[in-house]
Amino acid sequence: MKIEVTRDVFQLAQVFTISRGSRTEAQVLTVRITADGVTGWGECVPYARYGETLESVTDQIDSLPAMFDRAGLQELLPSGAARNAVDCAFWDLEAKRAGKRVWELAGLPAPGPETTAYTLSLDTPEAMHAQAAKNAGRPLLKIKLGTPDDMPRLEAVRAGAPASKIIVDANEGWSADVYADLAPHLVRLGVALVEQPLPADGDDALLGIDRPVPVCADESCHDRASLPGLRCKYDVVNIKLDKTGGLTEALSLREAALTEGYRIMVGCMVGSSLAMAPAMLVAQGAEVVDLDGPLLLAEDRDPPLRFDNSEVHPSDVGLWG
Known about the structure:
alpha/beta, three-stranded antiparallel β-sheet, 10 helices, about 30% helix
């Protein structure tokens, strides 16, 4: 068995800004596992918020032993980007060797298309109004917020896209007081969901606070081990494969979260269609799907996932799985 790690860069269609900073490109790691002349591949996006770099994640993958399988991988690496790329490459390899699709190997129904959110980058109210108006035909818009001056931005987006469903991602940028102050306005403006309003290490402040708009755990939820710490704080969990450490844990987290009464959002880092393809299996029937990474790129994998406006289709065998 041979594992190869390469770095790939995809230029973004435009500057993408959240409360933590801006970027003009997506830097990803591609993992290829070859065995018996068959190669499976997967992608991950190391994330500085979780202490990951391209170098540190590459080192994790390079530290793996010469022989192991997907089940053993779950013990060899922690949840995170490194395990994600290797886990998804294993699923692709297993499917190709078996002559089946990944969803068949996982015992899942055949996947169908899902409506994905489209993310509006953090900007001035005027620029965000223009972004919203340009994308007003999309059924679901996601707004990046998380600053002390968010209300004018939110008002501008609602004015630009009066018919779209809106979800808000504060990226840990608010305090409990800011959230409590904004909540009535979120309701007034028809916001359907708020992602991670408070820092993950300070989200105990959500205990006892009214949640007139459902609150989703993102940075606070990585894998099944996160679930006990979310009780009475969150209504929804955002499952991202770069957090769970791959499709294997993501499917288990979805099942466990549903059992505990959470609603499901499936999200992504800014990556290519290769990163979104396995997430599509987790996204089936999710309340919110946010797999718009390829829509933010100026270039993508070949072949890419197929998007019909805001509807994303499962991958074919030419891409993954």
